[in-house]
TrEMBL record:
EC class of the enzyme, as a word: lyase
EC assignment: 4.2.1.12
Dihydroxy-acid/6-phosphogluconate dehydratase C-terminal domain location: 411-598
Cofactor note: Binds 1 [4Fe-4S] cluster.
Name of this protein: Phosphogluconate dehydratase
An example Gene Ontology biological process: Entner-Doudoroff pathway through 6-phosphogluconate
Cofactor(s) demanded: [4Fe-4S] cluster
Family, similarity comment: Belongs to the IlvD/Edd family.
Biochemical pathway: Carbohydrate metabolism; Entner-Doudoroff pathway
Gene Ontology CC terms, in alphabetical order: cytosol
Length: 607
């Protein structure tokens, strides 16, 4: 089938992003050109420098010393507490073997932290979560600062980890880079059953033992959690940007195919370095078109709202300006082609089996909804990502095939006959500022909510009010002082069961917050990432109980009938201490707004 020309809206938004980024992108590319010109030839290092660099390289010492082939730096986010990253334990030793197969060498350049939002959800550690992204980016730059590498293999999957790795690697964008995923865990109990038990527990109708048994049935083995949250949205975006081996995102750990994809990533990274004839530096792969493709993929698949923060931050690291107006305008043109839990019944394993990323890329290209001409890490360009990988009968050779039609029309549909005509990530704005509304997860009859509000400063206070029965009515719950400068902008996922119960009881309920809700935010209408945040006098700080708020995804409205102009803002609660939160004070003080990416690192660097 012949692909249609690029959609007018996508073309227009891309051209606006290019225009808005002209000076900053030119400055970035100029820096990368200078870095490329002065890239250190390892053989020119002093003997002491060089000896330090390969003292632990064992059998690769001679090859590294003589610069016989490219030396690949591995930046790993391995730990075995985080289920998605547990499989990375053996990756470096295997990648060293695979590098030798093509005359290259590989070294672990460094490690980065990797926290699990599922563990810290609703706990003190969640206030470190967003700024762990800056920490990961800084850790990546430290790892690559030794100037020993001709390419970068990035081992990371989950929420802040992929954006942080990419932000750091982009400052070494004169080198090629490939992300190497490890895949999702197998499907556990049904998502509907998991949600049912959570709501029963919130109502006091299920015991803690019953809840724990349910959760263990969901999160049960190595691999990425199987709901379509931020981690799996990360994997989708790396495919849409051409930073994976095609089709690598959702193949499970331990599969023969998974090993062959990782082997292919190592071989390919060795082939696209500066010394070869197919140089593909990261700075040229991640351009304005790739950023737009990432946003298109997010909208088409109903991905995580966290990426309304991460995409602008990743773009800024490459000198690109992308904001919520761009995202919302793209949403008007990009149809929803996937319904993966929590937006549908099946998880990412079902998504992959139904055609997965190969089907998504193919249908978007057919309808002119993505840039086909981006530079990717893989030979063959972005069209290669419209095919699904497999292995031959011997299990030793990768093959790619057309995924064909959707294997499940309740999970995946062509862009010509989608679930809904728009991507379901809407900008709402008005007297309460600007915020994101994920309409793809919410029934259309709940796109507009107008009700008196209850104002809280913590999610704990919300759940306490719910337990006392104070929220059993039509209500818009406002949770403020949750922005990046106030407390690090934690996810407020602990609110989901209580708000879901209220909605199921028949009440008109919504959430307004300057905090985050993630890709697992579910069925309750929510205006999230409100900016300007409450700290510093944002409009949420001036709301009072019973002020009437109107949220409307259809018209893009977020407003109150109350006159806020004469009110003084409420005083923010003092920052909490403990769990290391006090050490992150500099990140909070330096952070910019959610729409700019909520990054202290980028803001303080003037990027």
């Amino acid at each position: 089938m012949t692909n249609k020309p690029l959609n007018d809206t996508i073309h227009r938004v891309t051209q606006r992003v290019i225009a808005n980024s002209r000076d900053s992108r030119a400055a970035y590319l100029d820096l990368m050109d200078r870095e490329s010109e002065r890239q250190v030839d390892r053989t020119s290092l002093s003997c002491s420098n060089l000896a330090h660099a390969f003292a632990g390289a064992e059998e690769d010492q001679t090859a590294i010393m003589a610069a016989k082939g490219p030396n690949l730096g591995i930046v790993t986010a391995y730990n075995d507490m985080l289920s998605a990253h547990q499989p990375y334990h053996r990756y470096p030793e295997r990648m060293k073997i695979w590098a030798r197969e093509v005359g290259a060498t590989a070294q672990v350049a460094g490690g980065t932290p990797a926290m699990c939002d599922g563990v810290t959800q609703g706990e003190a550690g969640m206030e470190l979560s967003l700024f762990s992204r800056d920490t990961i980016a800084l850790s990546t730059t430290v790892a690559l600062s030794h100037a020993m590498y001709d390419g970068v293999a990035l081992l990371g999957i989950c929420d802040k980890i992929v954006p942080g790795l990419l932000m750091g690697a982009l400052r070494f964008g004169h080198l090629p880079a490939i992300f190497v995923p490890s895949g999702p865990m197998g499907t556990g109990i049904s998502n509907k059953e998991k949600q049912r038990v959570r709501q029963l527990y919130a109502e006091g109708k299920a015991t803690r033992e019953e809840l724990l048994a349910s959760e263990m049935g969901s999160y049960h083995s190595p691999g990425t959690c199987t709901f379509y949250g931020t981690a799996n949205s990360n994997q989708m975006m790396m495919e849409m940007m051409g930073l994976h081996v095609p089709g690598a995102a959702f193949v499970q750990p331990g599969a023969k195919l998974r090993q062959q994809l990782s082997r292919a990533a190592t071989h390919r990274l060795a082939a696209i370095g500066q010394a070869g004839d197919d140089f593909r530096p990261l700075s040229r792969v991640v351009d304005e078109r790739a950023i737009v493709n990432a946003a298109v993929g997010l909208l088409a698949t109903g991905g995580s709202t966290n990426h309304a923060i991460h995409i602008p931050a990743m773009a800024r690291a490459a000198g690109i300006r992308f904001d919520w107006t761009d995202l919302s305008e793209l949403s008007s043109a990009v149809p929803l082609v996937a319904r993966v839990y929590p937006n549908g019944a099946g998880d990412v394993n079902h998504f992959h089996e139904a055609g997965g990323m190969g089907f998504v890329v193919g249908t978007l290209l057919e309808e002119g909804l993505a840039h086909a001409d981006i530079l990717t890490v893989w030979d063959g360009g972005f069209e290669s990502y419209s095919r699904e990988p497999g292995v031959d009968s011997d299990g030793d050779t990768l093959v790619w095939r057309d995924p064909g039609p959707s294997g499940d029309n309740d999970m995946l549909r062509p862009a010509s006959a989608p679930f809904q005509a728009d991507g379901g990530m809407r900008l709402v704005e008005g007297t309460l500022g600007r915020a994101c509304f994920k309409s793809s997860a919410v029934e259309r009859e709940r796109w507009t909510i107008e009700a008196p509000c209850r104002v809280f400063d913590t999610q704990r206070a919300v759940n306490e009010a719910f337990t006392r029965g104070e929220l059993d009515r039509d209500v818009i719950v406002v949770v403020r002082f949750q922005g990046p400068r106030a407390n690090g902008m934690p996810e407020l996922h602990k609110l989901t069961p209580a708000l879901g119960v209220l909605q199921d009881r028949g009440y008109r309920v919504a959430l307004v917050t300057d905090g985050r809700m993630s890709g697992a935010s579910g069925k309750v209408p929510a205006a999230i990432h409100c900016t300007p945040e409450a700290l510093g006098g944002g409009p949420l700080a001036k709301l009072r109980d019973e002020d009437v708020i109107r949220i409307c995804a259809a018209t893009g409205e977020l407003s109150t009938t109350a006159d806020l102009s004469s009110r003084e803002p409420a005083e923010a609660p003092p920052p909490e201490t403990g769990m290391g939160r006090e050490l992150f004070a500099m990140f909070r003080a330096g952070a910019d707004g959610a729409e700019q990416g909520a990054s202290a690192m980028l803001a303080m660097a003037g990027l």
